Amino acid sequence: MEALRSARLRPEIEIDPTRPPQRLAPYAYAVEAAVVEGEEDLADGRLVLLHDPDGHEAWKGTFRLVTLIRAELEPEMAADPLLPEVCWSWLTGAMEARGLAYGEASGTVTMAGSHYFGGLADRRPATQIEIRASWTPREGLGGVPDTGAHLAAWCDLLCQIAGLPPAPADPGAGTVTGAGVVSLPQRRGPQGA
User: Fold this and answer.
1) How is 57-74 classified by DSSP, letter by letter?
2) What is the pTM of this model?
3) Does an H or E element contain 46, and which?
4) How many CB atoms lie within 10 A of CB 145?
5) CB-CB contact of 131 with 67 (8 Å)
């Protein structure tokens, strides 16, 4: 848990501990994070670390990470039929870019569009993407996974979904370069300007 509390993250990330679910595992720790630019939240999410010392058959390990990430998209982005596959590849790619071993990844990528009527008719249509996923971090030295590195990879994904460019390389923090990486365009203002 200490690795989650002390991980070095990008300055655009605002992160706070939150109450974890109580019934999924004997031990749990959770954080909520948002990618903030000015006063606008570009994306937000929750990451939960679960630990069962006896192991869990479905996890194939004693630790599990569970996430929910959400971001609003420009409506035309939702028309891309490959967007869900691309977003899923960002999740696995974020871990692989940091050299993290993981297994049993599973989840969903959902796009939802909202059109407003009646008293809300003055709002522009909105499209949101949501990633729900879980994976088993492979245990390293001492039988404990590098949860701080998994948190940093998760924050990389959160920033990518928010439309931020990749962070410059920082060998001390394990941050990856942006070569060959594409992120979603950022939302700008109420009219997409």
Assistant:
1) TTTTEEEEEEEEEEEEE-
2) 0.80
3) strand 40-56
4) 24
5) yes
Half-sphere exposure of 134 (CA within 13 A, CB side): 12
Interval 42-70: pLDDT, tens? 999 999 999 999 988 999 999 999 999 99
**Distance between CA atoms of 138 and 103, rounded to whole angstroms?**
7
- Quick: pLDDT tens for 7-48: 667 788 999 999 999 888 999 999 999 999 888 889 999 999
Instruction: Identify whether the C-beta of residue 9 lies closer than 8 Å to the C-beta of residue 15.
Output: yes
Q: Is 20 helix (H, G, I), strand (E, B) or coil?
A: coil
- Angle 147-162/83-97 helices, nearest 10 degrees? 140
Distances (CA, A) of 43 to 53, 103, 190: 33, 25, 16
